[in-house]
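Consider one such protein record:
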Amino acid sequence: METGEAADGPGQPDGEGIRFSCASFNQDSTSLALGTPTGYKLFSLTMVENLDCIHESETSDVYIAERLFSSSLVVVVSSAMPQRMNIYHFKKGTEICNYSYPNNILAVKLNRQRLVVCLEESIYIHNIKDMKLLKTLLNTPSNSSGLCALSINHSNSYLSYPGSATIGEIIVYDTNNLNTVTMIPAHDSPLAALTFNASATKLASASERGTVIRVFSIPEGLRLFEFRRGMKRYVNISSLSFSPDGQFLCASSNTETVHIFKLGPSGGDEAATWTAYMGKMFSAASSYFPAHVSGMMSQDRAFATVHLLASGQRNVCTLAMIQKLPRVLVATADGQLFIYNVDPLDGGECMLAHKHRLFNVDDDKVEGGESKSSAVTGPVQTCPSYAATAALPASAPVTATLTGYSEDGGTKKGEVIPEHEFAAGPVCLDDENEFPPINWCRDGTGGGQTRRS
């Protein structure tokens, strides 16, 4: 499940009432990262009633903040240096590394295998274990918003991005095998939103018109579902997100309504669903009706809806399981987080479970053993930090656990930390062939454009 993101790029002024520059749920929607004019904040999302700020950093004008699952790795880009990406171990308060690129960074996406940096007309794919540049996609269609999506499934690590600046074509790229998988003619208008489901078997998209949301099979690129959020007006879709089980898809926009659509059973059972059956019936008869009528008949209406208190605000939404129940989470640009309950059987209007302020939160309040002070400093660990491990010579055997990447969830309760899912072997960032010095791309040639693997 690839979660959505709302962000202002470098140099873009904040609107009235804007409290943060970007908001991003992590890959499994267990935390929320906010970029603000004074730094960035990370919140834990394990409880409905309690919201914990587990980290706050004073880095000016952050407009990209991305956390890798529940690890201590966070990627930050500031409008003060929009061409540089910084990777931090936030619990130790140390910088792991940084990279510079020839133009402003518009988006950063990451999973356990890859880190992808999106510029307006190029994309850089790194191996996240050692930050080696694996591929540079040059001369991609102009993408001023940095729209792209990376699947969270590292075994099927697919990247999607616009294949055209004028129509809604989607390029699906395999970041493991480094080749283009397919091109999907998804919409007549330019793309506005993209997201994968957790297993990377489905891709949802919306265009700038915002009236129709389509879901395609991956890697085949076949259209599976088509959802209409309305015909009365065009809207700006700000985020799309699948539920963890892939059965639901939520979409938020600049209106006051968040739509939740139900996809039904996955796999081979899809053809047997009532929705698919009726869709085939209407498609067969569509030639007998005017275009706008037949189009409406082949669409599915929202299964459930959320009505926000205000419209016109930037927001980002996600579907998550919190305390074993399905929830819709919406972070709005005025600095609030709304948590709604979803009825997975009957749908309908979602009820507000809790509303949180994302600013002036008591950072010292302990929830689940985490607090601001412990998250920043933490106890002294017996194994070396990621930065210390990275500094070891390439020939030296490294057996220490890479604590910067390991999953932290459950450790406070005495549970075993799951083994990290990176490839085995040492992490060596001191080899200039793998990790050139930071000034290597300041000559204007770009981060790796002359080094293609």
